[in-house]
């Protein structure tokens, strides 16, 4: 089933990656859980989803504080990414998203705006066969303030030469939806119930 869109004069579609284009959140949770578990920690599923879109350094710092651990950010991030790459063949496209990616590729400007690293985003998009569908990627390395700050979405709009009011954001997390609103962009919650 295709994801319903709001009405508007949208000249660009901006897609989050994990949980929006790539149905990868369960796989990311498994990678995170294994990486954190190697340091004697836990990353409960409900907390993982509540923290969707947060930077890796913030997640590790908060888990350390909550669980009295001293996990090194760089090592946990490296190990989590390694484990995710091993599990990548299990990732699929989010149901209903492909028609919008294809439509944007043919008739609009398009970008991916993700809080993940460029390497991780490219690995996911390449594995799914849609990497060439997007004109630009705005990833963790490109911004100084993560979602819910609108910096990433505004940067994508500038790169595409489209005013924010003419951009439609596809998102799955409360932080991403808040960032879109702060950017003055309409948004689609791809996880909203569909009739």
What can you see in these coordinates?
By secondary structure, this protein is α/β, with parallel strands linked by helices. It folds into two domains: 12-24 and 92-189, HAD superfamily/HAD-like (Rossmann fold); 25-89, DNA polymerase, domain 1 (Orthogonal Bundle). Helices cover 44% and strands 13% of the residues. The protein contains eight helices and seven strands; from the N terminus they run ββααααβαβαβαβαβ. The chain has helices at 25-37, 45-50, 56-67, 73-87, 98-107, 118-127, 151-160, 174-182; strands at residues 12-15, 22-23, 92-93, 109-113, 136-138, 167-171, 186-189. The strands form two sheets. A five-stranded parallel beta sheet has the order 5-4-1-6-7. Strands 2-3 form a two-stranded antiparallel sheet. Strand 6, helix 8 (174-182) and strand 7 form a beta-alpha-beta unit. Helix 1 (25-37) crosses helix 4 (73-87) and helix 3 packs across helix 4 (73-87). It is globular and about 50 Å long. The N and C termini lie close together (10 Å). The mean pLDDT is 95.
Fold topology:
Layout: E1 12-15, E2 22-23, H1 25-37, H2 45-50, H3 56-67, H4 73-87, E3 92-93, H5 98-107, E4 109-113, H6 118-127, E5 136-138, H7 151-160, E6 167-171, H8 174-182, E7 186-189
Helix pairs in contact: 1-4, 3-4
The CATH homologous superfamily of the largest domain corresponds to HAD superfamily/HAD-like
Number of domains: 2
Strand content: 5-15%
**CATH top level class name of the largest domain:** Alpha Beta
The name of the CATH topology of the largest domain is Rossmann fold
Output the strand order for the largest sheet.
5-4-1-6-7
Number of helices: 8
Overall pLDDT level? 95
How many beta strands in the DSSP annotation?
7
Tell me the distance between the termini.
Answer: 10 Å
As residue ranges, the low-confidence spans are none
Q: Give me the Rg, rounded.
A: 16 Å
Major β-sheet profile:
5 strands, parallel
Estimate percent helicity. Answer: 40-55%
CATH architecture of the largest domain: 3-Layer(aba) Sandwich
Shape: globular
Order of helices and strands: EEHHHHEHEHEHEHE
Q: Which class of secondary structure composition applies to the elements?
A: alpha/beta
